[in-house]
Design a protein that fits this description.
- The structure is a single chain.
- The protein is mostly helical.
- The protein folds into 3 domains: about 5-120, Rossmann fold; about 130-190 and about 235-315, Alpha Horseshoe (Serine Threonine Protein Phosphatase 5, Tetratricopeptide repeat); about 330-500, DNA Cyclobutane Dipyrimidine Photolyase, subunit A, domain 3 (Orthogonal Bundle).
- It contains 22 helices and 7 strands.
- The strands form 2 sheets. It has a 5-stranded parallel beta sheet, sandwiched between helices.
- Ligand DLZ binds near residues 8 and 42.
């Protein structure tokens, strides 16, 4: 007999390890362990989600006739790590071999490879592109642009294809998307599900001091609930998804976003099935092409591409720091006060829900961290800790690559930086801010305004030759010298205040 490892983000009946195993002979090993729950200070909601979903999935496997050796966090024999639990179960059942599906984080892949057991790490077939396929695609290319990869995934899956042509004649409908924040949103947000109180008590007891509110806990925690949320969102929000994908609102945390990443990344939903349901809604005339295409691109394009980059680049990817940024993460990332309303709102909703939507992650907290020159290792750790959907395979390329440009441009051909004007255009945050977005210098000026030019000036040698950034440098160079000097000195004093822990 063999052990069959099922990790907390592998909760899919179609998992390759389960497919390969013998239900009548093998034993499934699932374990709530301190190592996984504390390698970064996870948001309590994220831990509660994982344990609840794992317990329910174990019950489902047992109901289907699998023998499951399940370790709860408070079991006295719990060794505290996945490796330890495999060793313990190996002796208990007299098993020397393990069937597993490759983990989504290098640290676990490497740890399992070192075990004195025979560990098979199978391909994770829940993803559309295999590592080999991504490597083949990347080979010989000067630039790894997502858009080209995405078109191959459209052809491979047949999603939104009419024969060999993209539906409605275009691959990408983004020019119809990214509208400003609407006055009001007529979608009430994600469905709310009942928690497992026993898990909440355990998490409160062990991880209650971590950053983040455990209650109210409302996430979907099994495949049926995740499907219910998906169907609810397709019906009520998807038609507007594309239009307002990049909008941000003071009084609406979710806008038209799907909130499926937590379920999707844990295996409660299947990406291809999700995209097929979205395509069906488009084909039946309920959803416009810009919404359906925009959404499907996020899943079979960005999501698959990010995973491809993580595995292509190897375990050292997370420690890249091409711009040599060294600043510490300010306390307001962990909930301390800040006068910057956009940052304060994004962090507050991260704290309450372990969720922020893409543009908040990219253009508010990510943009701020990059402009302020924060060490990407701290930024990486923060994102991995605070979001319920964070696993290194998807978090690291988004943070190290897309958001912090710490990989030197593998993911993004130019850094995602902007002044306050972008945030003002896409949100209503600036109206409620103690800084003034229209003010370019002085005590009350929006910090993003001065930090933006300071960033460009500091990294001039690297970015000025980039044709996609030449406009920005031309604008900077056209500013009169006295103003440029004031901008740079204002940026310096603002950063000094930040470092000194003053109220910013
Ligand atoms: P929606 O806006 O409804 O989008 C639908 C789905 O598309 C998402 O559920 C997700 O599966 C996929 N998607 C969209 N953009 C991306 C992307 N850039 N990369 C991968 N998948 C994408 N996503 C994670 O799943 N885990 C992370 O740890 C994570 N960290 C991020 C860090 C930064 C700095 C940035 C800029 C983005 C990050 N993302 C991450 C991508 C994206 O922000 C989230 O997937 C999204 O906000 C999840 O919310 P949603 O389900 O409501 O998404
Ligand atoms: C995120 C997480 C947490 C909090 N706890 C566990 C756990 O106790 N046991 C487990 O098997 N998985 C857990 N996970 C998910 C893993 O961290 C995840 O499988 C790896 O990070 C690889 O993506
Ligand atoms: Fe953010 Fe600046 Fe707008 Fe304030 S003024 S909300 S700091 S962008």
């Amino acid at each position: 007999m063999k052990l069959v490892l099922v990790l907390g983000d592998q909760l899919s009946l179609a998992l390759s390890a389960l497919q390969q195993a013998d239900r009548a002979r093998d034993v499934v090993v699932m374990a709530e362990v301190a190592d996984e729950a504390s390698y970064v200070p996870h948001h309590p909601k994220r831990i509660a989600f994982t344990f609840t979903a794992m317990r329910k999935f174990a019950g489902k496997l047992q109901a289907q006739g699998w023998k499951v050796a399940y370790t709860r966090l408070d079991d006295p024999q719990n060794t505290g790590s996945i490796s330890g639990e495999l060793m313990r179960r190996g002796s208990e059942y007299g098993a020397g071999a393990v069937i597993s599906t490759q983990s989504g984080e290098w640290r676990l892949i490497l740890a399992l490879g070192e075990l004195p057991l025979e560990v098979e790490q199978l391909r994770d077939t829940r993803f559309i592109a295999s590592h080999q396929e991504f490597e083949n695609w990347a080979k010989g290319r000067k630039e790894l642009r997502m858009e080209w990869f995405y078109r191959d995934m459209r052809r491979k899956t047949g999603l939104l294809m009419d024969g060999d042509k993209p539906a409605e004649g275009k691959w990408n409908f983004d020019h119809d998307n990214r509208k400003k924040a609407p006055q009001s949103i007529d979608y009430e947000g994600p469905l709310q599900f009942a928690p497992d109180e026993e898990v909440l008590s355990l998490v409160e007891d062990r991880f209650g001091k971590n950053f983040g509110s455990l209650r109210p806990f409302w996430y979907a925690t099994d495949a049926e609930q995740a499907q219910e949320q998906l169907r609810h969102w397709i019906r009520h929000a998807l038609p507007f998804f594309g239009d307002y994908q990049d909008a941000m609102l003071n009084d609406n945390k979710f806008l038209y976003h799907s909130l499926i990443s937590v379920s999707l990344n844990a295996g409660l939903l299947d990406p291809l099935d999700v995209c097929k349901q979205v395509e069906d809604a488009y084909r039946s005339g309920d959803v416009p092409i810009n919404a359906a295409e925009g959404f499907i691109r996020q899943i079979i394009g960005w999501r698959e591409y990010m995973r491809g980059i993580y595995f292509l680049e190897g375990p050292d990817y997370v420690s890249r720091n091409v711009l040599q940024h060294t600043r510490k993460l300010p306390g307001f990332f962990w909930g301390a006060d800040t006068k910057m309303n956009c940052v304060s709102k994004t962090v507050a909703q991260t704290q309450s829900d372990a969720y922020a939507h893409h543009i908040q992650r990219l253009m508010v907290t990510g943009n701020f961290a990059l402009l302020a020159g924060i060490d990407p290792a701290y930024v990486h750790e923060w994102y991995l800790a605070v979001y319920a959907d964070a696993y290194e395979w998807v978090e690291a390329p988004n943070v190290i690559g897309m958001s912090q440009w710490a990989d030197g441009g593998i993911v993004g051909s130019k850094p995602y930086v902007s002044s306050g004007a972008y945030i003002d255009r896409m949100s209503d945050y600036c109206k409620n801010c103690r800084y003034k977005v229209k003010q370019k210098t002085g005590e009350e000026a929006c910090p993003f305004n001065v930090l933006y030019w300071d960033f460009l000036d500091r990294h001039r040698d690297r970015f000025a030759p980039n044709p996609r950034m030449s406009n920005m440098y031309r604008t900077w160079d056209r500013m009169d010298e006295a103003k440029r000097t004031t901008v740079l000195s204002d940026a310096k004093s603002w950063l000094n205040k930040l470092d000194a822990g003053d109220a910013v």
